[in-house]
Write a structure and sequence with these properties.
The chain is of the alpha/beta class and 241 residues long. It is built from ten helices and ten strands. The strands form two sheets. It has a six-stranded mixed beta sheet with strand order 6-7-8-3-9-10, with helices on both faces. It has a four-stranded antiparallel beta sheet with strand order 2-1-4-5, with helices on one face.
């Protein structure tokens, strides 16, 4: 008997007013996996991420996390179950220091772990240790992305959701961030659900991937198989180069 997925979406539909953003989406994420959704800008990837947290709510279908139906749960209750998101555009608290941002991330975790978790984040992202007392809004784009991921990790999630972590970053910083994700998955078994426009990096990193077009899943498969697929290469990998 095959294991149940940690996260499962079945026939999920979501809309903004009259605009249908998700059209019967089916996605599964199993424990210990890195799963990615790739697609063009406006395909519905970020809406999919946000609908898991209930904003916008799914108007049809079912979202199940670790055997519990979370389709109608309020956002704060979903977060308490062990899902954490590093959102598109990072959305750190710009007037708060790095340390205070990390404190906010730890709000749902047992306070007894705070100091250990803080040191762990500083080990993963040494730059954040150097910037500990600096306001978030004064950090570089790459440092803000590191902070957004570290803030999500401070809640000790069972599923880390990352929305466009490479957006607007220099190639070297992108490589650093993807290396960190790979290491957390390999060494700690962290389950990662990743939405990413940079199809090459995402599919290279992910165990499995889904292709989204106009709010619907059009392809799925092993990351390496999608990376080699001529259709995917033509559409998302700069004309196959």
């Amino acid at each position: 008997m095959s294991p149940a997925p940690l996260l499962s979406l079945r026939g999920v539909e979501a809309a903004y007013g009259q605009i249908v953003a998700l059209k019967g989406v089916d996605v599964e994420v199993f424990r210990g996996e890195i799963v990615t959704i790739i697609g063009a800008n406006g395909a519905g990837k970020s809406t999919l991420m946000m609908s898991i947290f209930g904003r916008p709510p799914a108007r049809a279908g079912q979202i199940v996390f670790d055997g519990q139906d979370i389709t109608r749960l309020p956002t704060h209750q979903i977060a308490r179950l062990g899902l954490a998101q590093s959102p598109e555009g990072r959305r750190i608290f710009p007037r708060m220091s790095v340390y205070e941002n990390l404190q906010m991330g730890a709000a749902l975790a047992d306070p007894v772990h705070f100091n250990d978790d803080l040191e762990r984040m500083f080990a993963i992202f040494p730059r954040l240790k150097e910037r500990r007392d600096q306001r978030g809004g004064t950090l570089s784009g790459g440092e803000q992305q590191m902070l957004a991921i570290a803030r999500a990790l401070m809640s000790r999630p069972r599923l880390l959701m990352l929305d466009e972590p490479s957006l607007g970053l220099a190639p070297l910083v992108v490589k650093q961030i993807f290396d960190v994700i790979a290491t957390l998955n390999r060494d700690e078994g962290l389950t990662v659900f990743l939405v990413e426009q940079n199809a090459f990096h995402a599919l290279k990193l992910a165990h499995r991937g889904y292709v989204m077009v106009n709010g619907a899943i059009t392809m799925s498969g092993q990351g390496r198989d999608l990376l080699a697929d001529p259709q995917v290469r033509a559409a998302y990998l700069e004309g196959g180069h």
